[in-house]
Amino acid sequence: MKFEGTSSYVATDDLKVAVNAAIRLQRPLLIKGEPGTGKSVLAAEVASALNAPLIEWHVKSTTKAQQGLYEYDAVSRLRDGQLGDERVKNIANYIKRGKLWEAFTAPERSVLLIDEIDKADIEFPNDLLQELDRMEFFVYETGETIKATTRPIVLITSNNEKELPDAFLRRCFFHFIKFPDAETMRRIVEVHFPGLKNRLVSDALRIFYELRDVPGLKKKPSTSELLDWLKLLLNEDIDPALIRESDPRKLVPPLAGALIKNEQDVHLLERLAFMTRRRKD
């Protein structure tokens, strides 16, 4: 069973090779790349292509590795004991299963997404080393060992907010999603907006890549933001002539709020526009 992409996700050849290599090696696939390049969406597409259930664990700055295994709710058990609830006799009633437990005990092979692992504490990846390697863990409260009946396909994403430990990296197959070139981006646009006029796509892509090339831009627009921008251009019925005339070195493009996401970059483009107009005058 191999991943060949899907009708709704344009996977480059090197990405398909990486996914299939990780599956074959039975290693977690660690995906890095610019925000908005489809890292998190990849897990859903792999699950769809392989007809496998998707289990998602979205990591936050406060997330602990133990939460992926299970959590024991001692407070609820104490409260129920004070109230004379019969449930307290079985400690399993107060064990909350985590996403790894769910993936390990799934009746069929699942796809497990550990999303934005670099958001958590630096020890978070190391705390999962043994569980992801052996595909099992011990529940101390009940004395049972949870072992994967079918090894899940594990995809882990990172935005490079923190360096990941070497011991963790050694256990992963790594792939960096390069930012799409113009031809790949055209294919992505075609998937989301089939039959869109070629002239509009060409003009929009030109402006988009010129924006990304502006020196000093704090946040370059991403693929998802390009798609939002195109959707707005279509919904608002913007005159194509306005797009063709737009040049990030001269003026801010129409509906730029979909592409530019902070005031520093807006001010930068406005200064460039002002300087360009002065030179022309």
Q: Which helices and strands occur, and which strands form pairs?
A:
Blueprint: H1 13-25, E1 29-33, H2 39-49, E2 54-58, H3 65-69, E3 70-72, H4 74-82, E4 95-97, H5 99-104, E5 111-115, H6 124-127, H7 129-134, E6 136-139, E7 144-147, E8 153-158, H8 166-170, E9 173-177, H9 182-192, H10 198-212, H11 223-235, H12 240-245, H13 263-280
Parallel strand pairs: 1-8, 1-9, 2-5, 5-8
Antiparallel strand pairs: 3-4, 6-7
Q: What descriptive keywords fit this protein?
A:
alpha/beta, two-stranded antiparallel sheet, 281 residues, 14% strand, 5-stranded parallel β-sheet, single chain
Q: Which percent range describes the beta-strand content?
A: 5-15%
Give the structural class. alpha/beta
Number of helices: 13
Strands of the widest sheet, in order across it, are 2-5-8-1-9
Q: Describe the global form.
A: elongated
Largest sheet: 5 strands, parallel
Supply Rg: 24 Å
- DSSP summary, beta strand count: 9
How does this structure look, described?
Strand 6 and strand 7 form a beta hairpin. Strands 2-5-8-1-9 form a five-stranded parallel sheet. Strands 3-4 form a two-stranded antiparallel sheet. Strands 6-7 form a two-stranded antiparallel ribbon. It has helices at 13-25, 39-49, 65-69, 74-82, 99-104, 124-127, 129-134, 166-170, 182-192, 198-212, 223-235, 240-245, 263-280, and strands at 29-33, 54-58, 70-72, 95-97, 111-115, 136-139, 144-147, 153-158, 173-177. The model has no long low-confidence stretch (mean pLDDT 88). The longest helix has 18 residues, at 263-280. With 281 residues, the protein is α/β, with parallel strands linked by helices.
